[in-house]
Amino acid sequence: MTKLGALALVSILLWATTACRRSPRPASRPGALRSLPGGDLLPTPRFQPPADGLLTDEQVGRFIRVRRAAKGRTDAESARALGVAPEELAWTRARIVEALVALDDRRVRAASAEVYAKALAQLKASRASVRDASRARALDEQIAALERERAAVRREETPAPALARNMQRVAARRAELESVAP
Q: pTM of the entire structure?
């Protein structure tokens, strides 16, 4: 081994031993005081999801505050800096997204029903003017198929009571929530 090779090997070994000796970060405990750059020491409370699964206005407000404060930090870091449990933030985000998806589903179903209604009206108008029996039969089959599809799209499952309440709460603050992009 050459002197240069030995020197390189010693350098690598020295670097590896000092890199491995770095002290690990102490494990954080729920409820412990946490400090982040730009944030005061705030206790992070433990979070227990409500048994009823309902969002509160305060939770939605905290979620919005955390999202607005994120600027260059993760949501969990921002939550800790504001004294919000990251677990609460995650639970709140999940309920908000669930409600937004359900609201969007309703919106899409309504738009779909409108499209089906227009298509059916056009087919029925065409059917009324057709004199050829085979063409009329074909249009009748198309109308029946479209009616079945429309009925299937219209069938909406009734959301669970908690989801229905969360949908109302989220709908009232939708624009504000969308501005912070959950």
A: 0.65
